[in-house]
Amino acid sequence: MKQQNSDDIKRFMEKVKAMEKGEKLDLSSDEDLSIAIMNLISMEEHFFFTYSKTKDEKYLDLLNEVREMRKSALKRIIKDYEGEVWCISKHLLAASMRFMEVGTKSLTKGDKNGASDFFQKSYQLYSLFWGLNLGLVQTKDVKQSETKDIDFINEEKKPQLKEKVSLLARLGQVVQKAIDCCKE
Fold first, then answer.
1. CA 33 → CA 69, 76, 166, distances in Å?
2. What is the structure's pLDDT at 163?
3. Amino acid 9: pLDDT
4. Is residue 158 part of a domain?
5. In total, how many domains does the chain have?
6. How far apart, in whole angstroms, are the C-alpha atoms of residue 64 and residue 55?
7. pLDDT over 80 (residue 136)
8. Which domain of life is it from (predicted)?
9. In sequence order, what are the residues at sequence separation of 6 or more whose Cβ sits closer than 8 angstroms to the Cβ of residue 116?
10. Residue 44 contacts by C-beta under 8 Å, 6 or more apart in sequence?
């Protein structure tokens, strides 16, 4: 079992190094699609609340229509998944979008520090979404540590990084280097 963990970590680090060396991925369309999915999730929420307030069933019909559209779009990004990865991915996008919206509202109120904190959380969740769906990390590869950072399961085999950063922060760095959103 220890050998399996070591091999998994080695493969993860090889993928990270390849991406850091400039092997860019053209994910601009998938990135745009992921933002569209975030907005579809928000629409589902709004249709739910509007139905709850008005009891007008047309909002349930609209919710269902948007949900089917969101599921179809999500299938284009999430090719292979096991267990709860589908739902984890959906919730990562939803939470990322909510943090982004709260950050924007904080910024509007003049709270740049609060906005920055929410934007960082949003980006970390968004990076984790891509980390899961690009195969950079799997749910079995991480655990919660006492410091609330996500670390490798096998601490003694963990690759030594120049600085101590959480897996979410590391994924953010990798995603930033790997995705070239300006490619058309």
1. 12, 9, 27
2. 54
3. 53
4. no
5. 1
6. 15
7. no
8. Bacteria
9. 103
10. 63, 66, 67, 70
Q: Alpha-carbon dihedral of residues 153, 89, 85, 7, nearest 10 degrees?
A: -40
Who's near 97: CB < 8 A, 6+ residues apart?
38, 39, 41, 42, 122
SS3 at position 142: strand
Whether this model's pTM surpasses 0.70: no
Structure confidence at residue 145 as a pLDDT band (50, 70, 90) = very low
Q: Please indicate, yes or no, if residue 3 is contained in any of the structural domains.
A: no
Residue 36 lies in a domain: yes
Q: How far apart are CA 69 and CA 71, in angstroms?
A: 6
21, part of any domain: no
Q: Which residue has the higher pLDDT, 20 or 63?
A: 63
Q: Which domain holds residue 49?
A: 28-77
